[in-house]
Amino acid sequence: MIPPAVRARRTRWARTARWSGWLYVLPALLFYAVFVLRPLALTFQYSLYHWNGIGVARWAGLQNYVTVFTDSDLLRIIGNAFVLIVFFSFIPVGLGLLVATVVRRIAGGPFGTVVRTVLFLPQVIPLVAAGIAWSWLLSSTGLVNQVLRGVGLGGLARAWLGEFDTALPAVGVIGAWVLLGLCTILLVTGMSKIDPALYEAARIDGAGPVREFLAVTLPGLRQEIGVCLTVTVIAALASFDIVYISTGGGPGLQTTVPGLEIYRLAFAQRQVGLASALGVVLMALVLLCVLPIQRLTREDRG
Amino acid sequence: MKLSRREQLTGRLFLVALVLVTLLPFVSMLSAALQPRGSVPAGLAWPSDPQWGNFVDAFTVANMSALLRSSLLIVAGVVPVSVLVATMAGFGLGHLRVPGGRFVFLLFLLGLTLPFEAVITPIYYQVRDLGLLNTRWAIILPLIGLYMPFAVFWMRAHFVNVPQEIADAARVDGSTTWQLFWRVQVPLARPAIASLTILLFLWTWNQFLLAIVLVDDPGKRTMAGALGAFQGQWGTDQVLLCAGSLLILTPVLVVFLVFQRHFIKALLQGSVKG
Amino acid sequence: MSGYTARRFSRRGMMLVVPLTAAAVVATACSAPGADQPSSGATSGSVSTQLGSEQITLEMYAETGFPLAKALTEEFTKQYPNVRFNVREDQFTVIVENAPRVLASDSAPDIIRLPTMVDLVKDGLLKNLDPYFTAYGWEKFPASQLVQLRVAEGGRPRGSGSLYGMGLGYSVTGVFYNKQLAQKVGMTQPPATVAEFEELLAKAKAAQVQPIMQFNKNTAGINFPHQALQNQFGDPAQIADWIFQKPGATFDTPAALKATQTIQRWAQAGYFPKDANAIDYTAMNGQFQQGGGLFMFNGDWESANLDKAMAGNVGFFLFPGEAPGAKHVAMSAPNTFGVGAKAKHPDAAAFFLNWVHTNDKAREICVKVGGSSPGGPPDLTLPPVTEGTVLAETLRAAAQLGAENGAVDFTANATGAIFASAITPEMQKLVAGQQNPEGYVKAVQAEYEKELSR
To answer: What is the similarity comment for this entry (chain A) (predicted)?
Structure first.
């Protein structure tokens, strides 16, 4: 039982604290408003103008958006980002499930630690470095072709990042390499939280490894898979560093992604309006892709 | 769980293969970095006469000491401020539950999935108008703002879960809100703060887009931005490029290996919540 | 694991946030962006040809892999110790991408290697050099030397109007060949016609020698042979009009189409490296120096490097015409450097540019390090070079081209983005079999019109 005097003091205290609490929120809000909300509003504004970034802007209405949705090059650039989702998201998550299963079952002790540490390395280094390392690996004289020649498949050897058919998948492989470790370890952590009794029950029901995986593991990992997909889909749609470094968007427009195109349009070609419209579209696409994933994983078990 | 020997073996082999594939890009860079300068390296081949001097060359050419200093200055400008400001906001929103806080919180969430590319153009003009282009402030100030959605979200999640009784006890003592925050809540939030610090350090160190757009002098960029400049200049000298890249990678790798457990934990939590 | 991620986007919240953001947009939309920007780049009233003795540092932005700029700055500092240089270097593609942004910033370089100048002039990012032209008496230079560096008011057309750049050397392009490989395929003298050149390509292919070593990554190096052909197949004046953005000029000409068809044929015949789209400029030079190809389309800026790397084993010729004895036409352009409109030391920058053209030592460096004619007033003699070198050959070719009045600019310089947005991606497609000649020509013209309509 709290004495009434204390309670009264507490209520009064709480009321003033609640309002003075704004002092704690304001600095963060200020940084956020100045360096995110204002630019965000400006992006919308720029997107309605033709502006070269220097002179006076001309009102464009929705013309820049029309361009984004009708220009075949820009559509293809947006399409490239979606192709990258296959490599940045589906492969790391799919392969990650397999690896996580193996890691959970056999890799305990120091061996497990080494595996986890190494798989995590690509997540820690700058994406720029990943791009440089893989550009070298995939170059005409790089290791990949060396191996192919070594095993008598020299006919397959090629400049992987320079040819039309292979450039985008090759960029995708770099992303998969970066994101596999993160997905794997997220999934391992998730698996460790699944009640062992569920596995026991499945076994008693006579479930094989595949059914066990489908009936127990997969549903139990719904949330983690949702997280993996969210993170990797954003990484794919908003990719910039890897492409900038490894291909510069070529050959042709084969590997140009929206992020790179925004940068080029805004700073090299000085079409700030169009760049901003593409930025708004990119932002919307990210939300369109991420929201359904959130919905899918919404009913969590906790 | 009992496993057959065969499963043990194939599983281990699979993991070893995976580890090798993960490491291959690094090894292949090292082998190229040790070839004689001016040669065109071919594939993975251990050089008969490893040119460790290439690293010295790269160190000088890349002006590594200046780059390190610059990255550290940027990290020092971004991380402590971001963490402090976000912790305060998280406290205000999650614990004090300021009036209208729910709306403010949603405003922050709006920024969570925001691709930096979408706002980089106005940020450029804004930074230019502030007269800060080509200074480290050009990276520091926008980054703090851009980190706010995640950082506030993260710290609020922590404070929401702190039992109210702790605060009550402090109030009975007659402490002010600031004392409650600083003496009681912050020490309790240490794990959350540590993880946030690690994440922000890593993201700042590896920040590329802001660096290449807002700062031209590689000596005033982040490590990743400097690496981009290095590639822009020496991209066609494969040997030097590999040596320089490895050098630029080293600091973050060392930090990672030293604090690896914290890193992995932070990154995992970070992605789950972010 | 909690449901934070799920709770992030509650519908009620979004309904609140969206209209608020919209309100913010409306609020900021009241004034058009850039409305209050002061216009820059106006001609400043008075200029000085005095360097002064003040301690200054000139900011220079130059191209990686070409030691000329740095060599000149070092010599200049030796002669004028109060002037230092801070030289930033990037690959050409990077400069192309950075130039507008760098020039627009407050720390704009004093002296910058220019990719193409029309858009930069239009945006007021370059210093108008007319006052220096008068002050230093550059009217004594042959007018043809600087014609490509002139831009009319508003950025169009080029080739007349005010002066916006100077050359650190004036280059000529053509074909370098590897003498040993030439012998191997039975080439005894440079080809006299396009047909003869094609015969040599076929012979090389038959002898399992890579006929042409050419880069096509990042920027389209195959545009060199393309324009070399285009120059011969039609009236070069047409090309020049197009490059200078004269009204009504088009790229969609029979000459350009025929050139594109020829390039397609060469690509299909394997005359270019199979991985050309993955070979960048430096890799091409490296491979050519190591005997990786019989021919290389390039410019005299590489002469000094080639003489060093393959002494005595390299020759040069201007690309031949269709008929024997036809007048030579070749791409030839200044190694263009301009002065930023926001440069801190424009007078010193102009002093440096004048010095490069007129100082004996500087002219010698232009030739020996840069490999190109130093330009300047015609009464100054050319620095001597060693006979038998490819440097001597390219200098002779430059003189010959000048005498025949056959210089044209690069098509890649026609507009600010034509190279990056059309020529490079379309050429990469063309040689990879993803684009046909008609489509190529139309795509380049379409981008050209798109940019001009802005």
So the answer is: Belongs to the binding-protein-dependent transport system permease family.
Cα separations (Å) of C209 from A197, B29, C184, C205, C278?
Answer: 70, 31, 9, 6, 19
**Which fold does the domain B63-273 belong to in CATH?**
MetI-like fold (1.10.3720)
Chain B nearest C-alpha distance from C399 (Å):
33
Mutation target to probe the A interface, by most A beta carbons within 10 A, among B18, B152, B164 is: B18
**What CATH number should be reported for the domain holding residue A182?**
1.10.3720.10
Interface test with B, best of C94, C97, C98 (most B CBs within 10 A): C94
Residue A92 covered by a domain: yes
The position carrying tokens 């704009």 is C108
- pTM, whole model, 2 decimals? 0.85
Q: In 10 A of CB C205, how many CB atoms?
A: 18
Residue-wise pLDDT for C131-179, tens only, equals: 999 999 999 988 888 888 999 988 788 888 999 999 999 999 999 999 9
Q: What is the pLDDT of residue A299?
A: 53
Q: Which chains have at least 3 CB atom pairs separated by less than 8 Å from chain B? A: A, C
List of chain B residues whose C-beta atoms are within 8 Å of the C-beta of residue C98: 216
Total structural domains within chain A:
2
Handedness of CA A56, A62, A68, A72 (dihedral sign): negative
> 3-state DSSP: chain C helix, strand, coil percent, rounded to 5?
50, 15, 40
Which CATH fold would you assign to the domain C172-332+407-452? D-Maltodextrin-Binding Protein; domain 2 (3.40.190)
Q: Where are the domains of chain C?
A: 56-170+333-391, 172-332+407-452
Domain ranges in chain B?
A: 5-57, 63-273
Residues C107-140: tens digit of each pLDDT:
889 999 987 788 889 888 999 999 999 999 999 9
Distance of CA C167 to the CA centre of its chain: 11
* Cα separations in angstroms, C218 against C65, C215, C279, C283: 16, 9, 9, 12
Is residue A85 included in any domain, yes or no? yes
Would you say the ipTM is above 0.95?
Answer: no
Residue found by looking up tokens 């650190």 in the block: C168
Pair (A39, A82) in one structural domain: no
**Which of A250, A300, A259 is CA-nearest to residue A279?**
A259
Put simply, the answer to whether B106 touches C102 (Cβ < 8 Å) is: no
What DSSP element (H or E) covers C422? none
Contact B92 A6 (CB under 8 A): no
Tokens of A262: 């925004």
C7-19 in b/e form (b: 16+ CB < 10 A) is ebbeeebeeebee
